[in-house]
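User: quick one, fold this
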Amino acid sequence: MLGALVGGGLGGNWWMHVGRFQESTDNAYVQGDIAVLGPGIEGDVAAILVNDNDTVTAGQPLIRLVDTEWRARRDAAAGALAQAVAGTVTNRARIDQQHAQIAEADAQVAQAVAERDRAVQNAARYGTLANSGYGSRENADRTLADRLKAEAALRSAQAVAEAARAALPVLESECAAAEGKRAEAAATLALAERNLQQTVISAPFDGVVGNRSAQLGAHVRPGQNLIAVAPPPERQWVVANFKETQLAGMRRGQPVELSFDIGGPVLRGRVESLAPATGAQFSLLPPENATGNFTRVVQRVPVRIAIAPGQDSVRLRPGLSARVEVDTRADPNAPGGLFGAAAATLGLN
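Assistant:
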């Protein structure tokens, strides 16, 4: 009887100070961001460079598609860009040439103005001499004709200058159009380069490949699933679905003990976050309790648990079942064993 009383006392003390604060569930599973990879372009599978369950590194090629057509498209786009660049260079040269022609036309106008002024002065001088009887009428008529010719030459030079200036906006517009074609050709080349790069499907991160459905020579299309890459253990976590009645004392950062059905040591972790809604709300058909007969069902809330680094977690795989126990005590570092709790209660620690 004495042993039973002592055992009952120790058990009751442990329950009051430790056990009732331990929240556990076996509705827990290992999770990880699995990347399902497929082609971004249409083509035939040329080579499969890995096997199922191979360990790969970020950027490692996994599957290669036939790239003959896409390489030809890239080369054609590069040629079109070279032509467009040459067109822009030609148009800029034409604009520079037109500026030179405008300068030459302005010089011709200045020369015509000077010649017109000289002819006007000569015509006035010889006309005065002829009217006063000191000069011949022939010289007066000749200088008058020279003045008219100079005025006509000036108008012609001015017209040439105006025509040269009027042609400049046309050339600038053509240059802008050539620049647009160059930009379009550059974008086409960038797209062709991207499509060519997509003939190689690479691993987005370090991990293990699996679920390979690609077959050599098969014709594939964008969006088709060809291979998957699972993350390594250090990038995995556990999602535990606790009942809503277990969440009252659960907080971020609380310590967690994790055991797995696959075996291995018990791992340590911590509560990282609680889901913003119950699991039922994220299901395909959420329950609508406002219709029909009502049956109260205890809901579950997904809790994300981070696995502490530096542990033997090499066996972990996404999807494995786990058992989770969260210590919700205010001081999770307090003694948690049967005798440790008793010693803490008696103040012997």
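User: anything notable?
Assistant: Residues 338-344 have pLDDT under 50 and may be disordered.
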